[in-house]
Amino acid sequence: MTWGPRRSVIVTLGLVGIGCAIGATLYGRDGDRLGALLLWLGALVFVAVTAYGSLLNPRLFANEVGVEVRTMKGVRSAEWRHVEARVTTTRRLGRDTRTLELELADADDVMADPELVVLGQFELGAEPDDVLADLNRLRSS
């Protein structure tokens, strides 16, 4: 099973980035340099998030053997006996946010601290509780 950002969200973010770039070009022609700069910054942010979502898709892959997580540093894999998964709730900006936390221990170095990977609903493309239930089913099979 795989989880990653929804393609529709990635495409929408890319289109908004293109729209910001077009708007920046038009504002720049009319002489509103500050408005054009702000739109270019918005375009840059949207394109960066689009690239992040596209290049790291799928973020999480799991099967009966273990899990693989795709991060900016590369792909990290671990067998189930070296994986601890849980859903945590934190309060941010007045809202409760649920995230899936995966602790991936290194099979070769038992003395090393496990690597913590935190994935939210955007990265998973699904509710973290549902993903945890699927992971637990795979782990027990």
Outline:
With 141 residues, the protein is an alpha+beta fold. It is built from 4 helices and 7 strands; from the N terminus they run E-H-H-E-E-E-E-E-E-H-H.
Give a verbal description of the structure.
The protein has helices at 7-30, 33-55, 121-124, 128-140, and strands at residues 2-3, 60-62, 66-71, 74-79, 83-92, 95-104, 115-119. Helix 1 (7-30) packs antiparallel against helix 2 (33-55). The two termini are 13 Å apart. The protein has a four-stranded antiparallel beta sheet, with helices on one face. A three-stranded antiparallel beta sheet has the order 5-6-7. With 141 residues, it is of the alpha+beta class.
Instruction: Give the proportion of residues in helices.
Output: 40-55%
Please give the largest β-sheet. Answer: 4 strands, antiparallel
Number of H/I helices: 4
**Uncertain ranges:** none
**What is the gyration radius calculated from CA atoms?**
19 Å
Strand content: 25-35%
Task: Give the strand order of the largest sheet, numbering strands 1, 2, ... along the chain.
Answer: 1-2-3-4
pLDDT averaged residue by residue: 90
By DSSP, the count of extended strands is 7
N-to-C order of helices and strands: EHHEEEEEEHH
Coarse morphology? elongated
Euclidean distance between termini CA atoms: 13 Å
**Which structural class best describes the helix and strand composition?**
alpha+beta
